[in-house]
Amino acid sequence: MKTPHAESDRKYDLAVVGAGPVGTSLAILAAQRGFSVVLIDARNPDITPRPDTRTFAIVRGSWRLLGATGATADLMELIEPLNGLEAIDGGTHVFGRPSVLFTNEDLPEDDDGEPLGQMVPAGALQASLDKLCAETDSLTWLRNTLFERMETHAAGATLTLSEGRTIEAGLVAACDGMKSAVRGDAGIKTEGHDYKQSVFAANVQLSSPHHGVARQLFTPEGPFATLPMPDNQANLAWYMKRGAAEALAELPVEDIEAELNGRFADFAGPMKIVGPVSAYPLVMQLATRMVGPRTALLGDSAHRINPLAGQGLNLGIKDVGALIDVMCEARDTGLDPGSDVMLEKYEKWRRFDAAASAMFMDGVDRAFSNDSALLKPFRGLALTAANKIGPLRRAMARQASADQTHQPSLMR
Predict the structure, then answer these.
(1) pTM for the full model?
(2) For residue 267, which of 81, 156, 320, 330 sits 20 to 30 Å off, Cα-Cα?
């Protein structure tokens, strides 16, 4: 990793704006493949970040891509195998609660014996990727540096950064989140809606073994999910009305535990809070385009979806894999990776999947977060069919785990 002087005006093949898991993964993989890369990171290394209590469900295909970066080696003692995904309709039903369970047996055998996925602590994943950024040749890491504006031209883009620094890049990757400044400079609009809900999040100690199964209970008020963690702990997400989740997070721990166990002990067993709790608003946002002049959008800058089934980061990882494949194809055929032709190829590959995933998660949330007498029979039929019809269940498991031949090469 090289750090240039402030007056550097070097031209890079790729400028990555934003250094979360999506941006750092992209920067590392592109540099490993011989592209000159600059990573623009707003984080100040002299300030200790707040603890990140999130746990990511990294599905099989995404775990393969992270393995290609080298980041998984430092995570092996911290992860929990994801061996199953269970969804239960918690509304009132005459004949019990319909449900569906996907397990490792529903996927093709993996050469390395990988399960459906891995549960990965967010902070540990970021730390592992940061370590690789510092060790990767052809990667310039500009820390404590803000993106200010961008101007594109026929041969590339000029980026103005904090302290007056300017750099040139043939391609700019916007990995700077929902409020992406790069997306704004590229003139790309967004559409979506606010769910008027928030998610209460916490880590809990379970009293019953979770066996590596992520469980989701659909209640009329919204989903309640437990995601397996090491030491028989779980990361939980409880969908509530806006304001209620925030209010719950402010209560004493014993009051939170009483509320949790009063509502969900019959589903998850008695739970005890471990560590801090939080709440965040639930929104859906999709960029109307995933590309602009010399610009590609990835991760939350392109799509923020309902976090049902934990597919948000996995979509961003698919974006990374697709852009790497497009860049390598362009170089191998003598084309410009930042040209309109190659960016359109990236957009065609990724836009439908992102939009379809957003609409599907939105539809599931709307269909199951109620106690409608009209919808319940159809919900029950859908869950029962998915659980009983082997080919359908296996196809859905492969989709959920990103274990398919049409995925980017690093995910296969």
Answers:
(1) 0.90
(2) 81
